[in-house]
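Troubleshooting: if your tokenizer reports a length mismatch, compare your output against this known-good record of 463 residues.
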Amino acid sequence: MRRTHLFLVVDDDAAIRDSLKDLIRSAGLDVQTFATAQEFLTSERPVGPCCLVLDVQLPGLSGLDLQQELAKSNADIPIVFITGYGDIPMTVRAMKAGAIEFLTKPFRDEDLLNAVEQAINRVRQIEELKNKPAEGVPYKHKDHTKINFSEVVGQSAALRRVLEEVETVAPTDSTVLICGETGTGKELIARAIHNLSLRRSNPFVKLNCAAIPTGLLESEFFGHEKGAFTGAIAQRIGRFELANHGTIFLDEIGDIPLELQPKLLRVLQEREFERLGSTRTMRTDARLIAATNANLAERVAGNRFRSDLYYRLHVFPILVPPLRERREDIPHLAHHFVQKYARRMNKRIDTIPVTVMTALSDYAWPGNVRELEHFIERSVILSHDSTLQPPRDELGQQKIAPPPTVPGSIRAKLKEVEREHVLQMLKDTKWIIGGNTGAAARLGMKRTTFHSLVKRLGIERPT
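Known-good structure output:
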């Protein structure tokens, strides 16, 4: 660590200020302390890169209020919050506002120093961005389509909100709980968090808790020694050990049996565990991302899930919307999957008829993105030329019923989906309508019919 980084400590307890000052200085860093937020704001702002260790409960202006004041002044100062009151909503509010870490007193020196290291890395990232030549997109208003979100496809407002949350929590080491229906892409969100984190060069280890027999799940988590149980013919390394310094993704975490939940809670809180058949305590620095399609709060109420584990997982929840709530993404997803499976099957398919796209958008997709992907795969198999030929009878079985109070809203959404699809095709063909490779032919229409459609949708060629 370099001494060029200055840490600013704001805490009204003199003993804690001195303790934090000594601890951070022991890491070779410069420290300046303040007793109140007002004292910090009225002091001369340091010139070089700095980070802030901030108490939540302060007299007068609170730590969270100070965070908002800094945000208003566009001050890029990474913040590590400390508090004597572990409060879940407060934690979520702080993390979503950009805090690096949220530590509850008493915390271990190691945890604070890890947070300090994260803050320094964040400062370096900010300095690198400031030193890059401007590319026309301000740092605080990112174009999510240009950020590596793995295979997360779509541009809807609902999806953009999720990706903004991913960007917020990714640089931290906080536990993330991804909630959503089956098939919504929770694993892709988990991978996106890992890929945008400081751990991206280290392993991403995944495990579906529902797919492992109950008796073997503990061994999958923590590993076992040779002879630990019948059939343990060799030592096995567990997933938490494999994910050290990386990320472990536990899918369907609601299916973990009650008797194993205390051990999972221990590894989250203490960062330690023992392999089955061993008395040696192992340590891990794995970051946990969990996912579930179940309502864990209801399971806690029904005594089927431990409340302390639930609150430890619920540090930063992300809700992934079902496909029916982001239907404007269906054209993007359809094109993505068509190209994916066409390449895999050595086919060339460049046309999805408007009638097909409308049917895709009108379908309820109870299996969400996964169901759409499998349907497109079947459609590519059935297609024998450059036009997608889906099993159309399947799409009529479960349509979305328009709300009785606003019957025109679904039609308006469908029109917008259709307009976006046609506009994208015009862009792909560079606004060439006629000919074998023109937009009309690729949509399976006559040229005159296509002109009428463009006029009805209010599409005009940009000048």
